[in-house]
Design brief:
114 residues, alpha+beta, 32% helix
Length: 114
């Protein structure tokens, strides 16, 4: 008889729930999504369409970024990715069991855009 199988589902601990609530109270935050390493949403404050879209795309991006960091330096590990666009920033924090995605508004600038 072997070892008991590890459950494939990821449960969010009370500590993670508190972190999600704290992040969500920031006025710049538009939404938070937590996905497992397979890209399946575990928790989200976005609508279902946006949740599925961000989950799929960011999951692939995080996998590629992890490989890139490992290929450049096998002793290194990806800890954070920040993507900035004109409309918003996407903050990606990969962990062992899950990936946290935070969507936030960009800073408004007083200067004219090119």
């Amino acid at each position: 008889m072997g070892e008991p199988e590890k459950p494939t589902t990821v449960s969010i601990t009370n500590q993670v729930e508190q972190i999600l609530r704290r992040i969500g109270t920031n006025s710049k935050v538009e939404g938070v999504v937590v996905i497992n390493n397979e890209g399946i949403p575990i928790k989200s404050t976005l609508d279902s369409t946006s949740t599925v879209q961000y989950s799929a795309e960011i999951s692939q991006l995080a996998d590629r970024a992890k490989c890139l960091v490992r290929d450049l330096d096998p002793t290194n590990k990806l800890t954070f990715v920040r993507i900035a666009s004109k409309k918003h920033e996407i903050l990606v924090a990969p962990d062992i069991d899950y990936i946290m995605i935070v969507l936030q508004k960009t800073k408004k600038t007083g200067s004219a855009e090119d």
